[in-house]
Amino acid sequence: MDFEFTKEEIMFRDSVKAFLDKEYAPVANERDKKGPFTKDEAIDILKKFKKIGVAFDPESAKELYAEDPMLYGILSEEVGKVWVSLLPVIGMTGLPALFVPLASEETQNRLMPKLEKAELIGCFAETEPEAGCDTSDLKTTARLENDHYTINGAKTWISNATIADVAYVGAKDLSTGLETFFLIEKDISPFDTNELHKIGWNAAPTGEMFFEDCRVTKENEMNIMMGKAFSDPEIMKRLPMSEGMMRLFGQMSPFTALMTLPRCSMGLASLGIAQAAFEASVKYSKERVQFGKPLGKFQLIQEMLYQMNVLIETGRLLAYKAIDAISKGSGEARRLSSMAKIYGGEAAVKVTYNAVQIHGGLGLSDELPLERYYRDARMMTIPDGTSEMMKLITGYTILGKGFSAYT
Ligand SMILES: Cc1cc2nc3c(=O)[nH]c(=O)nc-3n(C[C@H](O)[C@H](O)[C@H](O)COP(=O)(O)OP(=O)(O)OC[C@H]3O[C@@H](n4cnc5c(N)ncnc54)[C@H](O)[C@@H]3O)c2cc1C
Predict the structure, then answer these.
(1) Which end of the chain is more exposed for a tag (fewer CB within 10 A), N or C?
(2) What are residue 180's DSSP bridge partners?
(3) CATH value at residue 61
(4) pTM, entire model
(5) Which atom of ligand 1 is nearest to the CA of 204?
(6) Are both 184 and 320 inside the same structural domain?
């Protein structure tokens, strides 16, 4: 077993770290207090990341997701250490990289230049007021009329909703009764949005979306788009998907396969937050003196540091093992990525709790980033699959057919 990153991965990690330390570490705490990024700020973020090679035009996205999926994990962990609110902004913009090359020619002509210039913000909209963990009966509908669909319905808790140019939206196709997805451009098929406020990820926009007779060309429906990719090897080659991911498509639904990497990303971003909180706690334990000794001399403090450290170390091993399984297209990827998501998120909650505790009153103050880490960590157990749903998926993958606890 090899526990080391490759030389290229180390170079990537170091350049992301240096970039984040310079651009965002000095401003994260104060900017985070001001609430969600504006669209201009989000585009500025995308453009800055593009300068270090983290971009979402199909070619760049290929490097990030396909050539070595480990890079996306590394990126997530490093972003988590500095300011996790950046992650939904950049992560959700990966979706257009996947679907714009499959959309209608007009859509491609309009969106590809923006994607190339890092000026296109994406979002993925499935959750609805009545469809949270259970998305088997979406209320958003798509009615086929000649060459277009008409979409009606509402979505909630959607990352980037309020700043997105393009949304990948789940709806029930009334002609088949089946759930499918549509690539919807806001300029061409307008929809309304509303910001939602939450305990953490303060700077990451999250919102509701409302679709009222929203027209979208038939060509931008998922099955038509996927059909295009599978019937034309040239188009397939342009997609940012690893060989491993293609192998996963043969073993599970495309949606399930595609969710494996974001779940590892969430696990690693959580562990990034945890690592930052841990490092601050180690430093503080050496500096803060009570009863004539630094806190670090007290066994109860060492017990907390042990707990924090072991959670981070085990979580990282699990998450990178899960990405390794994705790279290889192993059937283990679904189970491991679900466990990595739960483990990382729950670990971050425990680690940041201890970090606040070690810092005493200062841990609760917004002068330090500890309270932000704590609030941001609390966010990690719900989006992209709650811990409970990840446990049920793990149970199902262990027990096999006939043992799903949720269908
Ligand atoms: C900040 C944020 C960003 C998000 N971004 C997106 C996004 O970009 N796109 C998107 O589509 N969605 C997004 N979501 C939505 C997220 O995926 C849902 O919140 C999540 O799926 C849970 O749905 P819910 O909140 O309706 O909870 P519910 O489904 O109502 O669940 C409530 C509780 O019951 C538990 N539960 C439900 N069913 C079971 C069961 N069978 N067994 C055991 N426990 C169960 C859940 O785990 C949870 O603890 C986001 C959410 C947040 C908070």
Answers:
(1) N
(2) 171
(3) 1.10.540
(4) 0.97
(5) 1
(6) no
